[in-house]
Amino acid sequence: MDDCGSEKTIHYEEEGTQDGAWRTAMSDAERTKNYFIYKLRKNYQEGKLDTSQVARLKAIGFDFDGAVFNASKDSLAVQYPAIAEEWDKERNGKQTPWKVRPLATEKAWWRCPHCDRPYRLAIRSKVISNSGCPYCGYGGERAKVSLPVIRLDTLKSYPSISNAQREVGYSLKTAIDKSKLDRNGIAWCYLIDYELGRIPDFTKGNQVTPVICLETGKRFETQSQAEIELGISRGSICRALNTGKTVKGYHWIRESEYSEEKAAAARAESAPYRVVCLETGTRYKTYVDAGRDLGVEEGNIQQAVKSKSHYARGYHFVNSDEYSTLAKGEIENILKRDGRSRTVVCVETGKRYESIKAASGEYGDRLGSARSRIGLCCKNPYLTFDGKHWCYPDDLESRIDNAEEYTVPRKTAVRCLETGKMYESIADASRDTGINHNSIRSVARGDRHKAGGYTWEYVNPAPDKRDNRGCNQPTAKKVRCAETGNQFVSLSDAARAVGLRNGNSIRRAIDRGGTAGGYHWEYLDEKKEVSTDDHHQADGRAE
């Protein structure tokens, strides 16, 4: 250990950092161990330890006599002589490094051997927190103490950051510590740095420096101004400047680093044209470029192209590959319609409207809700608005043929089993009992057991096709309950019938040969295939 210690000390001396040798003289583990030993001895001296605790510590050979301060081995001057040399004898008075412990929390005065400035800092912080001179940082990191600051535009100094903040009315700590301009573009620094000529560089990584967009050549006074004007999230340009990446398809550069060569290289980056605006005939490399030029959100353009509606915020967009195959008449037909001009039909009356907007015009007091509701009805055959079904002309024949399937009574009577009271609708039951109508509906459907402490059921349960989700899914598997013989069009319908949350448990029961909800289950299609195979095998045996 002695050899290793001597080698470590020599190594620091060779590097010219002898002042750092005392920081590695004691490891963190040893320092923590000494601290706990000190606390145990102090508690023993003050009578805070129980008799059993003292007996156990003595049994393992713990020395309580060490609680008595021994300057020859416990003092700061012995354990950290390099730190003791910075002790300010004049300001500390009778207190000396021989009378204090290295882990003492009391504050003391120190004098930097490099800049000869006095400062006050806790002994513990000086020893274990790598705290050096707060002015020049000698002997470690700059200690976190109150230092005078100076405003560089007026050269007015303040005794501390707090005094400067009270005058300007906003926080300055982050701007001074990270060498940035404040929110008003004013530069601040510590007075000692200004006197020593170590003024920080405020241009690098600062959000208030002028920036230029390489694609457009437009100049912005600050990054924040560019982000607000272009609708870019806060801090995006700063990250782009540091990483060299693009933001919303733009390349950015600081004004001090701008050159025509860099701008030409950014504009010359090749990318395939993806979308064409039919109104202007302009081709764009990306959806972002189109949205930026026309003021349309990127997602709306992408959705318009993929859904073949081609319409987004007053413009029509077509994929570049599709645009080359379109005839002149087809382009004119696309330009004639927009997202709301598709013809709709009322299924009950058969009346046609040029658009959803024209159909909703008959509901002047409910114009806003009518547009959205009619649009939803065209997509979902089970929904109604004003008691009517709505659809597009292409779907009218299918809607008429399946009118009974899509017709669901608007009011369904329910009964409370505990009280025996019957209500004409779920809404009436909710108003009378104060129970949420969705909870009552869930219990009546069999999705839950209780709602408000009561059990509910439909008086005349009509088949609600909206719950038959499996009938609209081509991949739904029909299942059969082995005990009851009931058949279901999907796993979800079977699960709701027996009070299960979803069909996963039924699927696992079939795969593993177990039960779900207390019943055995089987796939109808597989049963048919198995029975057919059995017949073939039986025919083979007979032959």
Automatic annotation (TrEMBL):
Listed SUPFAM superfamilies: DNA-binding domain of intron-encoded endonucleases
Source organism superkingdom: Bacteria
Database matches in InterPro entries: DUF4379, Intron_nuc_1_rpt, NUMOD1, WH-like_DNA-bd_sf
Pfam family, one: NUMOD1
Domain Nuclease-associated modular DNA-binding: residue ranges: 423-441
Domain Treble clef zinc finger: start-end pairs: 83-136
PANTHER family for the chain: BLR8090 PROTEIN, ZINC-RIBBON DOMAIN-CONTAINING PROTEIN-RELATED
Name of the protein described by the UniProt record: Uncharacterized protein
Organism ancestry: Bacteria, Bacillati, Bacillota, Clostridia, Lachnospirales
